[in-house]
Every structure is written in C-alpha cells, then in structure tokens.
Design a protein that fits this description.
By secondary structure, this protein is mainly α. It folds into two domains: about 5-70, Arc Repressor Mutant, subunit A (Orthogonal Bundle), CATH 1.10.10; about 75-215, GntR ligand-binding domain-like (Four Helix Bundle (Hemerythrin (Met), subunit A)), CATH 1.20.120.530. It is built from ten helices and three strands. The protein has helices at about 5-25, 35-40, 45-60, 75-100, 105-125, 125-145, 145-155, 160-170, 175-190, 195-215, and strands at about 30-35, 60-65, 70. A hairpin with a 3-residue loop joins strand 2 (about 60-65) and strand 3 (about 70).
Length: about 230
C-alpha cells in the first residue's frame, strides 16, 4: 500500500493544494469538499485532510457546515473591498517601517524583484509576474519587522485568494499595476517612508476600484466565472 502524507507535512501539503486549486479555478465558491475525495486526490490521510480543512476554515477560506462537511466560502465583492481597505492600512504601516528598517540585502532583493517584474510584463509571463507580486508584498512585510501586522495580513489575505487571481488575469492588469509596484519598491529601497505609504495606498486604492468594477460586468464581456 502506498504511504500517504500525514502529520504536519500532510496537513500543510493539502492546505497549499487547496489554495492552489482556488487560485487556478479548479475549486469555486460554494463547492463542497469531501474528505475521502481529497485524501485520494492528494495522497494524504483523512486526518491530515481534516486538519488542513480546519486550518483553512480558521483562515475563512472555507466554512465547516455541521453534518455537511466543508465548502468553499463565498466572499462578496463588498467584503473583498472591506478586506482590502483593512489590508491597505496595515500594508502602509509595514511599508513605512520597511523603508526605515530594511537591510541592504532586502533592499537589493526589492530592486531585483522590480527588474524581474519589468521583464515578466515585457515577456507576457503572467504567472511569473503574479509570483513576483506576491513575493514583493511578503518582503515588504518581512522587512518591516511588524509581526502583529503580518499575522493580521495573513488572515485577511486568505479569503482574497480567488479575487486576487481573477484580477491578475484581467487583460492589461500586469502592465497597469507594474508602475504601482515599482513605486513601492523605489520608495522602500530608497528609505522614503512617507512615499512608501503613499505608494501602497495608491496601489490598493486601485485594487479596490478594480474590485468595484468586477461587480458589474461590461455588456461586451461574459460575467466572471463564479
């Protein structure tokens, strides 16, 4: 019999696999998740699956329904906007602190990310750009040393996984967001705390506008897949 993933490693693997399935559209809001099916799909024990589902429910990515099991939680556009407003306040704080506290290695990595983002947009490498985007936001938080903000941001970002993925795939979105990300990088890397906060605020204000526009599909476009 093939060994199945178990313990902390299995729990983490299943949770990460479900997050990826949400980003890629393989799981959709309201979809029910069956422990046995997940255990078979991911080669994990039911115990590891159950613990992963509980972790994702704590992050508000899933919800556990009594006697029905787990299902993907539906996040409304209005909730997504409110989450992004909270995220903006915390990320502005982190950007200010990162501008003051980042070490030379972190500043150099920020600049490398900026250069790689430019290349990804020029090459149309959207998956690479998305990964760089995620790393940029993580690095700013790491450099800030603000652990309380980091914990709150981790919790806020969980339910936003699907929205972030859908926005990233909008035609022209990477080219639109690139200057915003470069402004964050330039401000943090140069140690300009007020400019770093302004750059983060401008970027996330734009994300909020994108979310608002996603609530009303254009007459020439099909509505986003639910």
């Amino acid at each position: 019999m093939t060994d199945r993933l178990t313990g902390a490693a299995g729990r983490q693997y299943v949770a990460d696999a479900i997050r990826y399935a949400l980003r890629s559209g393989d799981l959709v809001p309201g979809q029910r998740l069956v422990e046995n099916d997940l255990a078979e799909s991911y080669g994990a024990t039911r115990g590891a699956v159950r613990e992963a589902l509980q972790d994702l429910a704590a992050e508000e990515i899933l919800e556990i329904v009594p006697r029905r099991g787990a299902r993907v939680r539906t996040v409304s556009v209005e909730e997504a906007i409110q989450i992004t407003e909270c995220r903006s306040a915390l990320e502005q704080l982190c950007a200010q602190k990162a501008a003051a506290r980042a070490n030379e290695e972190q500043r150099a990595e920020l600049r490398r990310i900026g250069a790689d983002m430019r290349r990804a947009v020029a090459d149309g490498a959207w998956d690479a750009y998305s990964a760089l985007n995620q790393r940029l936001h993580e690095l700013v938080v790491e450099a800030s040393g603000q652990e309380v903000a980091r914990r709150h941001l981790d919790r806020l970002n969980g339910p936003m996984v699907r929205f972030q993925f859908r926005l990233a795939l909008r035609p022209g979105r990477p080219a639109q967001s690139l200057p915003q990300h470069l402004a964050i990088i330039d401000a943090v890397a140069s140690g300009d705390a007020p400019a770093a906060a302004r750059a983060v605020a401008a970027h996330l204000d734009d994300v909020i506008e994108q979310l608002r526009s996603s609530a009303v599909p254009s007459p020439t476009q099909a509505p986003p897949r639910a």
